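Appendix B. Extra example for self-study. Work through it before the problem class; the solution is given directly after the inputs so you can check yourself.
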Amino acid sequence: MSDAQHDVIVIGGGPGGYAAALYGASAGLDVAVVEQHKVGGTCLHVGCIPAKELLEAAAVYRTVAGAAEFGVSAGEPSLDWSAVLDRKQQVIDKMMAGLSSVIKQRKVTVYPGVGSLGPSGTVQVAAADGSGLTLLAGSIILASGSVPRTIGGFDVDGELVVTSDELFSISRLPASAAVIGGGAIGCEFASMMGDLGTEVTVLEALPNILTGCDTEVAKTVRRSFRKRGIEVHTGVTVHGHEPRPDRSGTVVSFGEGKQVDVEMVVVAVGRRPRTEGLGLEAAGIELDGRGFVAVDDRCRTTAPGVWAVGDVVDSPQLAHTAFAEGMLVIRDILGEDPNPLDYHGTPWCIYCHPEVAFAGHTEQSAVDAGFDVVTSIHRYMANGRAQILGETDGLVKVVAEKQADGTGGRILGVHMAGPWVTEQLGQAYLAVNWEATAADVAGLIQPHPTMSELFGETVLSLTGRSLHG
Ligand code: FAD
Ligand code: NAD
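Solution. Structure tokens for the complete assembly:
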């Protein structure tokens, strides 16, 4: 016996879960979402949106600090952290209201509580008040997301040691911080805190920050961090920390006998899939070797009628990947025989200063994949709009397949670091994913003066001719 029946039940209302629900409902399916906290998930409440909002506060601070260069006197900027957090919350609240309203309009039923798989196509919902429900559906989608990974010796207390979950509500910005992990989260937080006045030290275990990015791009960010006083140590092991007796700070030990005395430690060492308590084993759902829910190329789990999307599966841990997987699964449920997603072409945007954006092969990964490659790099220093903005740090690098005459053929990857590159990636993303050639793109007109001209010029020079650079 069930308390209610739906075509599709989604466990988890983050980007993966709500995308499946909204897209499914728009296709005429009766969809329900079980959510234990708030719809919007990590992305809206403690991820993409608040991180970008705080980075925008940092950008405003930088603009005010540099206003005199433009002949505008704004005085020394000063920070009201509680006002910064208030604005961040207002943005979240407005987006939450919009999301809730579209969920309602589409007649998606939201069940508050913890969802788990029951027998024979059922989902059990345990509500906070102790009550329970049994729901029945022909199709079930797991979208329970991920949680921050932690490291031994760094117990998260929300004050001395925080992860991204706590950082968005700390009562004051620390005077100094050690950020453990120089990945996407580590670099965004280091950039934001550094620009707002915190003395930041990044401790990264691997030889480079931003692993996975093109080396020129990672170097550009590192150089900018150095210029802005953000210290970066790569290839270091973090051993532990010793809080001051009054817990006003702590001393972090790393590398060969090195130490850094800071007010706060931010642990940003990756995120692990949230698979516990879902009843996976009893339902016959297997995990892969890394603990993610094992799925095929259409996000089908090892149990018939159950799919999994988003951070709980081993694909790029991004909101837009989760959206795409949610829609793919609905098309599979509808029997539309959808093409699997091409994760290789995924657009990546990291919003530290300078911003980073890329899609497709890096130079190294193209070589490793057996391509004969040719590359072209152009720098924002030579771009008029970037000069006007006063933001000339950065570059565009295009990786193309080398043709017999040495010019560039198919565009394999585009890598950018610099001003507003997260908004400039669009045409590069299309070029890579539409398998355009350098000649295809070089024939198109770029608006002047824009920063996106730099992409056009970088591609143009792969044809063996060029304009400015
Ligand atoms: P989640 O967003 O984690 O949502 C899962 C939901 O399921 C949660 O609401 C949770 O409460 C609920 N849930 C879990 N278990 C149960 C259960 N048993 N019953 C009921 N409900 C349950 N990605 C980008 O693309 N761009 C960015 O700029 C970006 N910035 C980020 C910045 C930070 C600081 C962080 C932490 C992440 C960022 N990400 C970014 C990653 C992005 O947030 C995730 O990839 C995305 O949220 C994954 O969506 P999801 O739906 O799979 O999971
Ligand atoms: P990450 O995998 O990007 O980076 C983690 C970093 O921590 C790695 O460089 C790793 O080498 C390092 N590390 C791991 N253990 C360490 C240790 N003990 N000591 C020192 N360094 C250590 O993970 P993240 O930055 O936590 O972000 C998680 C995911 O969230 C990302 O993979 C990304 O998919 C998503 N995210 C995306 C954005 C964006 O798209 N703008 C922003 C933030 C997060």
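Self-check: Residues 81-105 form the longest helix (25 residues). If your reasoning did not lead you there, revisit section 3.
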